[in-house]
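Project outcomes to date are best conveyed with an example. Our students and postdoctoral researchers have been running inverse folding experiments weekly, and each run begins with a structure described purely in tokens. The record below, which covers 294 residues, was selected by the lab manager from last quarter's runs and is presented without edits.
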């Protein structure tokens, strides 16, 4: 099985930033963990791809990203978190939602997500995290992030995301790219890139036909002299731990925790949303947690 791979480039003599990602393994792993339906796989998969690309721009490994898509569709919320080490995780509220294909014969991500908002939180070690918000303009994820970049970060961007699920209901390809003109980029270069990308209907088909990511970058920019500047190998990995869960319990408060304990036959169960790992505590353990808190 291939590994997830992300490559960053500069095109047109440093005028354009290009990031291309094959995240097929990551999306397969997410689907397996959450038992995702096809449409939930597409929605979460696209969000995982764009979030991973955004994390690749962190200069500090301790920097953290949280993406929240809150729609009124049956899928509920989509949440993806990642960090500068390229560990990515995510979940959807209702992973088993199934919808008929849309009128184009595609997975109906739009109606699964519904109308709503996109929030991006970046914690890069400053006093306060950066928080950006924008509305969902199509609920297809890619267009929503393109709108977010131009309205919240003032960065016009080509955003292409895709998850292809075969007739055998297996994820065949999950991938995407973001192209962003840098300051002082020539308008003619922007026109060329826009023209090329208007004629690319499916990023998954493109990256299935062209397996070499370097060639994909050349194709989507029209620049055969593209410069590779970085390469990363992101993974789907949850960083939940007993220590983190105990901090959550302390934040809940002893009285509330013991009340919950008594309602559940003396056992408190907490399930991690991102990896479905279950943490169990009895009354003695709960008392120890509060007695030993720092």
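After processing, the design step wrote out the following sequence:
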């Amino acid at each position: 099985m291939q590994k997830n791979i992300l490559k960053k480039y500069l095109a047109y003599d440093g005028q354009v930033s290009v990031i291309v990602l094959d995240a097929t393994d990551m999306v397969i792993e997410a689907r397996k963990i959450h038992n995702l339906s096809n449409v939930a796989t597409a929605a979460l998969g696209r969000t995982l791809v764009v979030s991973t690309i955004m994390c690749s721009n962190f200069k500090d490994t301790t920097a953290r990203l949280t993406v929240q898509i809150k729609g009124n569709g049956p899928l509920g919320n989509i949440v993806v978190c990642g960090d500068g080490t390229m560990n990515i995780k995510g979940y959807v509220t209702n992973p088993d939602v199934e919808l008929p294909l849309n009128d184009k014969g595609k997975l109906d991500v739009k109606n699964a997500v519904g109308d709503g908002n996109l929030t991006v939180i970046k914690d890069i070690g400053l006093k306060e995290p950066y928080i950006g918000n924008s509305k969902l303009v199509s609920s297809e994820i890619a267009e929503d992030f393109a709108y977010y970049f131009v309205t919240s970060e003032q960065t016009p961007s080509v955003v292409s995301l895709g998850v292809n699920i075969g007739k055998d209901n297996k994820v065949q390809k999950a991938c995407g790219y973001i192209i962003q003109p840098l300051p002082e980029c020539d308008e003619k270069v922007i026109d060329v890139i826009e023209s090329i990308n208007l004629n690319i209907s499916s990023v998954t088909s493109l990256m299935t036909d062209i397996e070499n990511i370097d060639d994909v970058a050349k194709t989507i920019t029209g620049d055969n002299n593209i410069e590779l500047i970085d390469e990363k190998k992101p993974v789907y990995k949850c960083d939940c731990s007993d220590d983190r869960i105990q901090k959550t319990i302390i934040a809940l408060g002893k009285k509330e925790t013991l009340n919950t304990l008594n309602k559940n036959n003396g056992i408190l169960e907490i399930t991690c949303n991102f990896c479905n790992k279950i943490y169990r505590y009895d009354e003695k353990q709960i008392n120890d947690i509060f007695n030993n808190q720092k």
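Residues 243 and 289 are 10 Å apart (CA to CA). The chain has a mean pLDDT of 94. The training component of this project remains on track.
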